[in-house]
Amino acid sequence: MSSNSALPRVATRSRHRRTRSHRFLRFLVILGALSSALLIAFHQRVPDLFGLGLLLDNFAPWLGLAVIVVGLFAIISRSRTSLVVLLIPVLTWLFTFGPGIIPLSWTAPAAASSTLTLGSQNIKAGTGTATESALDLASGSSDIIALQELDENSAQRVTTALDAQYPHHFVVGTVGVWSKYPLVNSRALDLGLGWKRALSAQVQTDAGNIQIYVVHAASARPNDHVDRDEMLSQLATTVSADSHQNIIALGDFNATSTDRAFQKISDVLDEPNQDNGLFGFTWPQTPFAMMRLDHVLVRGLDVTSNTTANAGLSDHRAVLTTVNLPGN
After folding, report:
1. Residue range of the domain that includes 183
2. Does the structure show a pLDDT above 90 at 230?
3. Average pLDDT of the residues of the chain
């Protein structure tokens, strides 16, 4: 009799343990779902202590992986509440990043009779393949080629290799631009650094002038991104004060579009989506790209194509963007 009465008590204790574990798991799911949603939505508000803000900002799209982990726990918990709560970070991620990953091909205007294609790449100093990068971009029908991380020798080699097709060029420090169209009013920009890592010039086309800025922003590391922040801030100020109607800024910004320091420049210039959607990550090239540090930003111009490509042996993928020329 005592043996039989002990069985229900054992079963009851087992059910209680399962119930407690499921409740605890459900609590973890709710906590994880709300935490990940808050980080996705407000990562730029997290204090930049020990470089945490920089890391969160630039890896923000990857916070979606946390949602997947929380989703696995939600399935294990077998709780309807957990699955409903999981919708909060999912919808937050889609609301935050969804508009930026819609394919440009869905909404891009048709290419006009006159277009301008720009190719830009950080060629990675020391690889010795600046010329290969330039020729790869030239083969992609680029009308303007912008390169960053140049040294004196590589810039001269690029000029020699491109001279027949791109007779107009301007090089400043580590940045250079080569053009099929005449370049006027070219000037160096230090953007607060005290040395030159940027330039501006006017591209003269039959349809009118286009003001371009080529930028190689200072490096950004946890607890070491003051110079980069200053460059981006001064670039935004310079562009904001620029009276030209048609402007393009391109190069290696050493910041993703989700970086809080990038916000000032994205307030005055627009970045088009990728032709085939998603984020168009450009760095590192191998084993796979994890963030987009290289950008083409525009004002007053219709973008018909925007994509990335491999060129040379750089650790950055190149960006290729085509715009309709003014009046077309």
Report:
1. 104-324
2. yes
3. 90
Last residue of a domain, one of 65, 100, 135: 100
Nearest 5°: the CA angle 297, 62, 99 is 45
Q: Is the pLDDT of residue 251 over 90?
A: yes
Which residue, 283, 213, 223, is CA-closest to 255? Answer: 283
Regarding whether 160 and 19 lie in a shared domain, the answer is: no
> Has residue 1 got a pLDDT over 50?
no
- The arithmetic mean of pLDDT across residues 228-254, rounded, is 96
Co-location of 110 and 162 in the same domain: yes
**Mean pLDDT of all residues in 78-100:** 89
Q: Are 92 and 37 in contact (CB under 8 A)?
A: yes
Strand 198-205's sheet: what is its strand order? 183-189, 198-205, 208-216, 247-252, 294-299
Look at residue 12 in the predicted model and tell me its pLDDT: 52
